[in-house]
Amino acid sequence: SQQGEEDPQALSIQEGENATMNCSYKTSINNLQWYRQNSGRGLVHLILIRSNEREKHSGRLRVTLDTSKKSSSLLITASRAADTASYFCATDEGQAGTALIFGKGTTLSVSS
Amino acid sequence: EPEVTQTPSHQVTQMGQEVILRCVPISNHLYFYWYRQILGQKVEFLVSFYNNEISEKSEIFDDQFSVERPDGSNFTLKIRSTKLEDSAMYFCASSEQRGGDEKLFFGSGTQLSVL
Predict the structure, then answer these.
(1) Is B105 on the interface with A (CB under 8 A)?
(2) What does the pLDDT look like over A82-109, one tens digit per residue?
(3) DSSP state, B84?
(4) Residues of B in contact with A30 (CB under 8 A)
(5) Torsion of CA B63, B67, B70, B75, to 10 degrees
């Protein structure tokens, strides 16, 4: 089933700017995770936010979760060229311990 | 930092042939997964594996697919009779706890090309 849907599909910004990516999902969830994928590489976990949390920070990353709207956002502040990658949200579809279902991703390009 | 390793990095095969993709999960992890990503598309869940059996599988994981943990370190995905539409990047992942509760560690993938 299709769960997470990221928006926008592609985003191009300049170094130093902030990048915001959104994720919407359909079912109830226990957790939502964000992953990053460099071109041709595997996914790397960035951050996990639980359904009872509204906001979480990790370095230059800020994630919000609005369970009433079934949406999450990932904010990368002061972006760098090295942040160029695809970013995916993933959810567990509300059943604790089931496999993560990924969205289509947002491709972020940061130019210097 | 421990990592998930996958071999080969690239696999080219003829339609109808069998392929085996290999993975070595992180040693103390108990849950194992296969995902695939067709070029430019979403990362799709195939199967999860725990305690020597499949714990969950998607609609994609039909009878032509199978998984096995032949020994204490390897985790394999077999495609019995490959089709053109099986061409994709296949990712193995592992986690210490079930994937919904904890982050997954992914390998770098095997690019499968079916001709």
Answers:
(1) yes
(2) 999 999 999 987 766 678 889 889 999 9
(3) G
(4) 100-101
(5) 160
